[in-house]
Specification:
CATH topology of the largest domain in chain A: MetI-like fold
Oligomer: heterodimer
CATH class of the largest domain in chain A: Mainly Alpha
Number of domains of chain A: 2
Radius of gyration of chain A: 26 Å
CATH topology of the largest domain in chain B: MetI-like fold
Number of helices of chain A: 13
Largest sheet of chain A: 2 strands, antiparallel
Shape of chain A: globular
Structural class of chain A: mainly alpha
Number of strands of chain A: 2
CATH superfamily of the largest domain in chain A: MetI-like
CATH superfamily of the largest domain in chain B: MetI-like
Strand order of the largest sheet of chain A: 1-2
Radius of gyration of chain B: 23 Å
Number of strands of chain B: 0
Shape of chain B: globular
Order of helices and strands of chain A: HEEHHHHHHHHHHHH
Strand content of chain A: under 5%
CATH architecture of the largest domain in chain B: Orthogonal Bundle
Helix content of chain B: over 70%
Strand content of chain B: under 5%
Helix content of chain A: over 70%
Number of domains of chain B: 2
CATH architecture of the largest domain in chain A: Orthogonal Bundle
Chain lengths: 300, 274
């Protein structure tokens, strides 16, 4: 009798706790389902339709995807995006690793702390503001960059207006904006390397360069991989900078995949087609994530 | 620590290079502030063109271009966003971490999986949805994409560290369920709440693509979109553009000066959402 009563109260307690649990997660679950998960499936559905907002979506199976492979503008955008990734990712990774490594190992002073604080500042700027400033810096008529190279007797360059330099210039701004961010991550990782390891290396007579290559770099491998993965994913989705710095031009010289998706969906109202491209972008990014997961499995 | 070789030539070269890098990081922003205090129609600016007592570009922004409205919009979006994100993240994380919900592992993984989705995939259909729900040009539309799985993920890791014994003891002492959440759990994860708030603040204040999509009326523009229309409008009038950029930058910058540690943690952790 007594025991039975105890089981009952324990059961109801568990039920009550589960009910409380649902009360906590349900409101958030509903918001996330409606505004985050549902749109993903809507996009998947629209990618098989012809939809321009004015008329109801019309099912056209894989036509959008077939069109993707014959779209020369998109092919150009893909090439640009890959070039953009190839410029930004190694540059920001190397710059931030070197800066973090030096600051952590040799300049762990008040001045070093100040420098870290300063290097972080570009993160706080919006891409729109950053683009506005850099447009002026890159300006072909009297921009400060042209004034500086003018001092060395070089001719002015139309940095953003020349198809040969525009994409590189956009990439430089991206690196400027995010190097400090990756530096903070590397710095935290280096500070986690135990003092014993470092001291042992010094006692064994390792030079700073050896210590960098044989201790810092291997220990930071997982962090480096994360920085690279993040960098690749961000650069694959580059939009704000391209939109405000060059508008994808000159011609299609700086058009990226994210920019194409934006202009198809929101300027041309070709929702279905844009959705198909977005789904392909998703697949590319999922592939990157899978590689990343594989890597972390190895680490464990 | 590494005393033996700190004063070598290599040390000085390194210091100079890192200093140079730091200068390159802030030089464009100093330039931005300087240009905002000139009224030069060309970019050949000399020091005599810069007048720090001349706020005419700022006055022009706020008087003629009505920049107070986008500034207010951005503040509203940031405040609403931070409140909503924290509310959703803390409650969900607490439920997922501390409550015996059947199938919560699967549910949580579904929530986590949304972090890998590129924003473009969500934004197109969210835009269609907002049009159909007649929510275009509303604060709700501006705030909604700020809510995401990242906050839940972050808070859950911190709530994991709250000992169950403490919550049980509170329950035995007659503390109500809501009381345990509000008076035991939340105070213990306060650093995480600050981190999440800073991260949400920075992404909300600087967000551009979604506001560009979901606002069509200028009175609903946040600062970034208002600035964007300004730069398109004034291709050659640099002063007002740089004044707008300075206004937009100054808010996170001032907060950063006071909350440097929280900013670095919030944004560094935040980026892990990918």
């Amino acid at each position: 009798m007594n025991g039975e009563k105890r089981t009952r109260t324990r059961l109801t307690r568990r039920h009550r706790q589960e009910l409380y649990g649902w009360a906590y997660i349900l409101p958030g679950m509903v918001v996330l389902t409606v505004f985050c998960i549902l749109p993903i499936f809507m996009t998947l559905y629209y990618s098989f339709t012809d939809y321009n907002l004015a008329q109801a979506p019309e099912f056209i199976a894989f036509s959008n995807y077939v069109k993707v492979f014959t779209n020369t503008q998109l092919r150009k955008a893909l090439v640009n995006t890959v070039i953009y990734v190839i410029i930004t990712v190694p540059l920001q990774t190397i710059v931030s690793l070197l800066a973090a490594s030096f600051l952590a190992n040799f300049l762990n002073s008040r001045y070093g702390k100040f420098l870290r604080g300063v290097i972080f500042i570009p993160i706080l700027v919006s891409y729109v503001a950053a683009a506005a400033v850099w447009r002026i810096i890159y300006n072909s008529k009297g921009g400060i960059l042209n004034q500086i190279i003018g001092v060395f007797g070089l001719d002015s360059v139309n940095w953003l207006g020349d198809a040969g330099t525009a994409l590189i210039c956009v990439a430089v701004v991206a690196v400027w904006k995010s190097a400090g961010y990756f530096m903070v991550i590397f710095y935290a990782g280096i500070m986690n390397i135990s003092v014993e390891v470092k001291e042992a290396a010094i006692i064994d007579g390792a030079t700073p360069r050896q210590r960098f290559w044989y201790i810092t770099v291997p220990i930071l491998k997982p962090i480096t991989y994360m920085v690279v993965t993040l960098g690749v994913i961000w650069s694959f989705q580059a939009f704000d900078l391209v939109y405000k710095l060059t508008g994808g031009g000159p011609g299609f010289a700086t058009t990226t995949i994210a920019y194409v998706i934006y202009s198809y969906a929101f300027q041309d109202r070709r929702i279905g087609y844009a959705c198909a491209i977005a789904i392909l972008l998703l697949l590319v990014i999922l592939a990157i994530h899978l590689v990343e997961q594989q890597f972390f499995k190895e680490e464990d | 620590m590494v005393k033996s070789d700190t004063r070598t030539l290599r040390f000085w070269i390194g210091t100079v290079l890192v200093t140079l890098f730091a200068v390159l990081c802030v030089a464009p922003l100093i330039y931005m502030v300087l240009v905002s205090f000139t009224d030069s129609p060309t970019l050949y600016i000399s020091w005599s063109d810069i007048d720090f007592t001349d706020f005419s570009n700022y006055v022009y922004l706020f008087v003629s271009r009505d920049f107070a409205r986008p500034l207010l919009n951005s503040v509203i979006v940031v405040v609403l966003g931070c409140i909503l994100v924290n509310l959703v993240s803390c409650t969900m994380a607490y439920g997922f971490e501390k409550k015996p919900i059947r199938g919560k592992g699967l549910l949580f993984n579904i929530v986590l999986a949304t972090m890998m989705i590129p924003t473009q995939v969500v934004f197109i259909s969210l835009f269609v949805m907002m049009r159909q729900l007649d929510l275009m040009n509303t604060y709700i539309a501006l705030v909604i994409p700020l809510i995401g799985a990242f906050g839940v993920f972050l808070m859950r890791q911190f709530i994991h560290g709250v000992p169950d014994e403490l919550m049980e003891a509170a329950e035995i002492d007659g503390c109500s369920e809501l009381g345990i959440f509000l008076r035991i759990v939340l105070p213990m994860v306060k650093p995480a709440v600050i981190t999440l708030t800073v991260f949400t603040f920075n992404s909300a204040w600087n967000s551009f693509m979604w506001p560009l999509i979901c606002t069509t009326k200028s009175e609903m523009y946040p600062l970034t979109v208002a600035m964007s229309t300004l730069t398109s409008y004034f291709e050659t009038n640099y002063g007002p553009t740089m004044a707008a950029a300075t206004v937009s930058f100054s808010v996170p910058f001032i907060l950063y000066c006071f909350l440097q540690k929280e900013f670095v943690e919030g944004i560094a952790l935040g980026g892990l959402k990918g």
